[in-house]
Amino acid sequence: xxxxxxxxxxxxxxxxxxxxxxxxxxxxxxxxxxxxxxxxxxxxxxxxxxxxxxxxxxxxxxxxxxxxxxxxxxxxxxxxxxxxxxxxxxxxxxxxxxxxxxxxxxxxxxxxxxxxxxxxxxxxxxxxxxxxxxxxxxxxxxxxxxxxxxxxxxxxxxxxxxxxxxxxxxxxxxxxxxxxxxxxxxxxxxxxxxxxxxxxxxxxxxxxxxxxxxx
Length: 215
What we know:
Blueprint: H1 2-16, H2 22-29, H3 33-41, H4 51-64, H5 84-95, H6 104-113, E1 116-117, H7 119-124, E2 130-141, E3 150-156, E4 159-165, H8 167-179, E5 182-192, E6 195-205
Parallel strand pairs: 1-2, 4-6
Antiparallel strand pairs: 2-3, 2-5, 3-4, 5-6
């Protein structure tokens, strides 16, 4: 895709010599500004500076005219650093994951206040225990052989946990399953062999949880 082509241009230019600044990278790689913005927000250019600062520098390059010869140094403008939540959210939005931190870790203190367990704690719970769990949806499956049962895998900072939604539960919460990236669920722990899952009774979007991230 375009992202891979942009990265190939950057790698080719860097083989000549390291980049002195964002302006130097832009001038030598010829990567379009919109793709540079995406790379900055995803953290791919963190070696050149803080992301908010790099975005400001990119806007200045646009104002000066992207096709003109660009200076290789930038004026020092002090901008506030990105909050950790902003940085992680950008990474999830752009590339679907974060190299900085699993986003649930930012909410863990608030989740604990509401007795929401981590995936690891759920896997340690005995069969039959009612639990609350939350995470990012990474897989939703409705196998034709499962008699209408839906399987949903959530990921948090400790790992993954599998949810089981019977047809009537899926029908009730289908909009959340399909439309919410971060969800919380309550249900009963089931164990069969080495497999552990949660039979869901209720589900809601994680944005409904009160409180704010810790960073």
